[in-house]
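To whoever is on call:

I kicked off a structure prediction for a single chain this morning and the downstream step that reads the tokens threw a length-mismatch warning. I double-checked the sequence; it's 500 residues and nothing unusual in it as far as I can see. Pasting both halves so you can look.
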Amino acid sequence: MALLMVDGFDKYGGINSVDANVVALLTAGEWTSTAGTAHQIVAPLSSTGFALTVGSGTTITKTLAASYARLIGGVRFSANLSTTTTGIVFLDSGTAQASIVINTNGTIAVRNGTLAGTILGTSAASITASTTHYLEWDITFGNSGSYQLWLDGVSILGPTTGDTTATANNTANGLTIGAVAAGPSLTIDDLYLFDTSGATNNAVLLTSPRIETQFPSSDGVVQFAIGASIVGSTTSRSATPYNPTANTFYVRPITPTANCTVSAIGILPNLTNASVQLRPILYADSGNTPGTLMSAGSTVVGMTSGVLQTLPLTTPQALVAGTRYWFGLMNDIAVVNSYTAQDSSAVGRFATATFASGAPGTAPATTAGQITAVIFGVVSSIATNSYEVGQNPPQGQYSYVYDATVGHEDLYGFPALTAPAPIIYAAAVKGSVAKSDAGAKTLSLRTKSGGTDSAGSAASLAPGTSYAWMTSLFPTDPATGAAWTVAALNAAQGGVKVES
């Protein structure tokens, strides 16, 4: 298996400036560790999805499953060429073997050891600040190792030899991407990594490849049960909380994508307050503002910072897909900066309404332009399993399907690729998975193409008790053993199977 990993940085949700939340998403099974406090999910450098920015003194690290004498890969990047260097460091059990350095003058170098190590070679070609390029490499590790770099498909350094090791081993088993010190920022997208084994994906691609991530959109085979569902999202992507005063009536719009029944309003508190009283409210839409009260609930007392709080509705309400509703809550006392923000948009609305009087039958006149708080609906009666597993980022215990019967399988359909793809080098199926029962359990992540249902590169994966990304790779179409075609990939299904 020559393909070792791919990451388009798309499955970590929308644009996100909250470092701690981005780090939690990155290190949930995909990246091993991070350093620094300036990780951000940003707009993509290619035509789809998202990208990752690593800022001042910030890195991400991936430990590979084995040690490799030669690593081939590529990444789309944009660097601001600030006062210190950025780049990629190849690791042997945490020690830098060799590195690719983006210098502040725009040239690109290979160094022994760290980003500040001995220079082995520097390109004559250079980039300008904050422009997007695709960098590829082929490095053999050894005292008389070899290396070559390509920029946008053109060789800019090597092939040549040099000492590409700083340890006693002639291998690497990990990589770190980011900044050597405070100052610079580097944005990356569309990362791939190969070794040289196998008949496919064992040489640089030289085509500026793009990784497109799709999420389940329909059911194929359904054998798993639905465990939980929400409308909206529990994920915070903004560090600016909402600041309600006493007797605040706050709502935000949510439009379900499936028919469902909402039984509770959920909120992510930003601060702890043991005495605040909260009441859930749900309103119908009236000309893009809240209108008639649909349901409210009993008073819930207290909230804890960072702990999702659910507020039950007295009467569950049926919701119609594609219809806007206003989800929210009332509070009795002022709690400064108490509601965690969903993102940087300002679609929330508020009014002053006396808490003790209960939820108004018709919404009062509200002021627009308020921060979008993390408010969601706890729902049931969803008709499709693909809905629960199609959230980006995954919602863990709040949106999932489950099964413990060996041999049971869920397969899902996916949207067609959004941009032309004359060559498909590989496909990957990734799932955010956890086990909730005792004992060892295994699963496989599947692709079904034509009549062939395959586990790909990983026939048996062992999930832990916390949700984490797991991956199986499909360099070729399992139905033919040949390269994927666009038609075949668009028609394929993907999913999960209980193995033991």
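Update from on-call: the warning came from a stale cache, not from the record. Cleared it. Sanity check on the structure: The domain at 3-194 is CATH 2.60.120.200 (Jelly Rolls).
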